[in-house]
Design brief:
The complex is a heterodimer.
Chain A: E1 4-7, E2 10-14, E3 19-25, E4 29-37, E5 43-48, E6 52-56, E7 59-64, E8 69-74, E9 83-91, E10 98-100, E11 104-109
Chain B: E1 5-7, E2 10-13, E3 19-24, E4 31-38, E5 42-50, E6 53-56, E7 65-71, E8 74-79, E9 88-95, E10 106-107, E11 111-115
Parallel strand pairs in B: 2-11
Antiparallel strand pairs in B: 1-3, 3-8, 4-5, 4-9, 5-6, 7-8, 9-10, 9-11
The chains are: A mainly beta, B mainly beta.
């Protein structure tokens, strides 16, 4: 199956700092989504972004499908950004099998 | 609109007992997914349904696990008999159409299962 690797595995930031999270995948995809799992375990969809760039407030994401990677940018981080960020992809030709990466655990401190 | 609704939120059961987890997808969504999350293995897709039909159950770990979707608004994941290694958070999720078509997937809050 498709391999999804995320880096870094852990990240500690001071409030107000910026960060970039990376997702590499091993095959062509027709679906890529970023999720945030908050400290209470809830999984929230952030972006659907199989290619191109999107922005939503302090978050933005870019996927370069031909290079098989995606980046999630967090600017002016806040303590509420803490949690685990997952990248998930669907390999082209496998209609609905969304495969998750191992996640980046982010802690934002005061 | 209500999101994906799962029950129970928390369950503690003894080894050997039957466990049934329930899910109500978002109304109008045609695809339903069961995921399991553990520290060791992360988020794994167990099974998904499209239009109430199981499409891919290759992630179901053993015959002790079974899933059904009798109608568009209800699905169950059953473990019988349960074992301590089944302890995990089980997520149900739904999507308007197959996610390969570019549709966002929405997760429930999860069922936290502990088997002692």
């Amino acid at each position: 199956g498709i391999q999804v690797e995320q880096s870094p595995p852990d990240l500690i930031l001071q409030e107000g700092a910026n960060s970039t999270l990376r997702c590499n995948f091993s095959d062509s995809v027709n679906n890529l989504q970023w999720f945030h799992q908050n400290p209470w375990g809830q999984l929230i969809n952030l972006f659907y972004i199989p290619s191109g760039t999107k922005q939503n407030g302090r978050l933005s994401a870019t996927t370069v499908a031909t290079e098989r990677y995606s980046l999630l940018y967090i600017s002016s981080s806040q303590t509420t950004d803490s949690g685990v960020y997952f990248c998930a992809v669907t390999r082209t030709g496998t209609a609905s099998k969304l495969t998750f990466g191992t996640g980046t655990r982010l802690q934002v401190t005061l | 609109d209500a999101g994906v609704i799962q029950s129970p939120r928390h369950e503690v059961t003894e080894m050997g007992q039957e466990v049934t987890l329930r899910c109500k997808p978002i109304s109008g969504h045609n695809s339903l997914f069961w995921y399991r999350q553990t520290m060791m293995r992360g988020l794994e897709l167990l099974i998904y349904f499209n239009n109430n039909v199981p499409i891919d159950d290759s992630g179901m770990p053993e015959d002790r696990f079974s899933a059904k979707m009798p109608n568009a608004s209800f699905s169950t994941l059953k473990i019988q008999p349960s074992e301590p290694r089944d302890s995990a958070v089980y997520f149900c999720a739904s999507s308007p159409r197959e996610t390969g078509g570019g549709n966002t997937i929405y997760f429930g809050e999860g069922s936290w299962l502990t088997v002692v």
